[in-house]
Write a structure and sequence with these properties.
mainly alpha, Arc Repressor Mutant, subunit A, Four Helix Bundle (Hemerythrin (Met), subunit A), 2 domains, 11 helices, 4% strand, disordered C terminus
């Protein structure tokens, strides 16, 4: 029997079945973060599964960040607040095991981020435009603040998928950042490029925002190419050099 056939005939575990039922319940009832599911004893009665199966299903949902289970007299089962860092950790593990190079990430960003800049220029609220401009004003040009610019840009698209992808991508970068790998002039160039992009977004200039972002990323890719860093892993394994990435500055 082939692997495909074995997978097709595999009977799902009871805990998998219950976890899926509870996901459907949360979505169909439109339960919000902080709202409670029935207590464990009531779930056992409603779904006719054993205590062990119910606890295993809840553990699976906790790992996925869908529910939070609190023990004790005031405990209970609550719908969890969505946490983008869980997506980031999954991406980081995937990138680390695959040895994904920096080049792949930058090529992806060249496709995605100019479009995001254009989208932000079209859809951002006045408050989001101001926040994006403010994110370029950090006097010490610190790495976390530079990463924040790209997060603010993702939020300013007002597109949930785009925002999540850009936030996750830049969190992966932030974990591996070493700001000392860029000179003061290079860091100043980053700030200036961010400012041009933010100003174009603020004015609603879609084409300019996209063009400035594309030029910014191309310039950074050329810099890393000169440094011989494009083929380094985007998320180094523990044995790799930690000099792998200062890309979060961009």
């Amino acid at each position: 029997m082939t692997a495909e056939a074995r997978n097709a005939t595999r009977v799902p575990k009871a805990s998998d079945v219950l976890a899926n039922l509870l996901k459907v319940r949360i979505l169909s009832e439109r339960l919000q973060p902080g709202e409670r599911l029935p207590p464990e004893a009531e779930l056992i009665e409603q779904y006719k599964f054993s205590r062990g199966t119910v606890r295993e299903a809840l553990r699976m949902l906790e790992i996925d960040g869908i529910v939070a289970v609190r023990r004790g007299p005031r405990g209970g089962i609550e719908v969890a607040e969505p946490d983008v860092s869980r997506v980031t950790r999954s991406l980081a593990v995937l990138f680390a095991f695959d040895g994904t190079p920096v080049r792949d990430l930058l090529e992806f960003r060249l496709v995605i981020e100019p479009g995001a800049a254009s989208m932000a220029a079209r859809h951002a609220t006045r408050e989001q435009r101001d926040q994006l401009l403010d994110s370029t004003l950090e006097p010490d040009n610190s790495v976390p603040h530079s990463v924040q610019f790209h997060r603010e840009l993702g939020l300013a698209t007002n597109n949930g998928f785009m925002s999540t992808m850009m936030t996750s991508m830049n969190q992966v970068l932030e974990w591996q950042t070493n700001s000392q790998e860029l000179s003061a002039n290079e860091r100043h160039g980053t700030t200036s490029a961010h400012r041009r992009i933010a100003e174009a977004v603020s004015k609603g200039e879609e084409a300019k925002a996209a063009r400035y972002m594309h030029a910014h990323l191309v310039q950074f890719m050329e810099l890393l190419g000169r440094q011989g860093r494009l083929d380094l892993p985007v998320v180094p394994r523990p044995t790799d050099s930690t000099r792998g990435l200062s890309a979060a500055l961009y």
